[in-house]
Amino acid sequence: MRVTNYSCFILLISVVSPSSAAKQNNGRNKTSLVIGGRKVPRGGAPWQVSIIQNFHLKCGGTLLTNDVVLTAASCIKDVEPAELLVRAGTTAFKTGGKLRKVRETVYHPKFVENRHSYNIALLHLKRAFNSTNKLFGEVELFDATAQPPSSVYIYGWGLSSNKTDTLMTKNLRFTKAKVYSEKKCAEYLLEEDDSDLIFCAGDRTKISDICTDDMGSPAIINGNIQYGIVSDGGACSATRTTIFTNVGKHASWVERLIAEFSDENVNE
User: Fold this and answer.
1) Do 16 and 231 touch, CB atoms closer than 8 A?
2) Which of 41, 99, 162, 168 is the least crowded, having the fewest Cβ atoms under 10 Å away?
């Protein structure tokens, strides 16, 4: 694995309370994610992938190209590429679609564990997915010069209710979340986090929300434009919100890496 030293483009989501922002909640249930929301129909999120380690869902991600995946650095740090598989072309994380092995993983050089500002990584696959198949699609990165959205759609394979201890849902789900003001978001951030690279979103009623972890999964606007990546999470409660690292701020880092990966493919 290599770590580059370019400036970066990021998206991320996590759930943190102001009173406990400086503490890491290690006892949380790592299965729940999308509370409420709706099932994604077959082909409804063709860019969504699941990242598998030891036959278990490690985290979510998205296809930037047919052989490059965008996810969270916290998902792949200290994990060998050979330990990972990527599944795409299906709304199930256990079955269907196609699997690909990972050639290399690269995370942002400024990433620090338990921080959100630079929690971004790319996976370069050994073999590309079929770009002519409609079940496989790609996200576009948010333009940082554009007007920020007032809401985003968030995706994941977590519990569909915060009143159950059942296992993760088999089908990908999505829900809509309001983007909070920068002032409100600042209440949930660590002092070390760069608020310019982060945004917060959620549903304070907790009827529909992201809770706990599904690292690497996207926040999407306008069908396939990615605005954020799940960074980390915590239990649903009225005192928590969802934190995203803003991807549009780091587009140049992502684009340079994609170009490097493309050169490697040509030189094989």
Assistant:
1) no
2) 41
Mean pLDDT of 113-123: 91
Q: Is 163 exposed, middle or buried (0-12, 13-18, 19+ CB in 10 A)?
A: exposed
Enter the pTM of the model: 0.83
Position 206 pLDDT exceeds 60: no
Residues contacting residue 239 through CB under 8 Å, at least 6 positions apart: 17, 18, 19
The radius of gyration computed from the CA coordinates of the chain, to the nearest angstrom, equals: 17
CATH superfamily placement of domain 140-247: Trypsin-like serine proteases (2.40.10.10)
Say if CB 84 and CB 53 are below 8 A apart.
yes
Longest C-alpha distance within the chain, in Å?
53
Q: How far is CA 33 from CA 56, 81, 227, 240, in A?
A: 16, 25, 18, 14
Measured distance CA(57)–CA(85) in Å, rounded: 10
What's the confidence (pLDDT) of residue 200?
84
Right CATH for 46-139+249-266 from 1.10.357.140, 3.10.50.40, 2.40.10.10, 3.40.50.300: 2.40.10.10
- Asked whether the beta carbons of 233 and 217 are under 8 A apart, the reply is no
The ranges assigned to domains in the chain are 46-139+249-266, 140-247
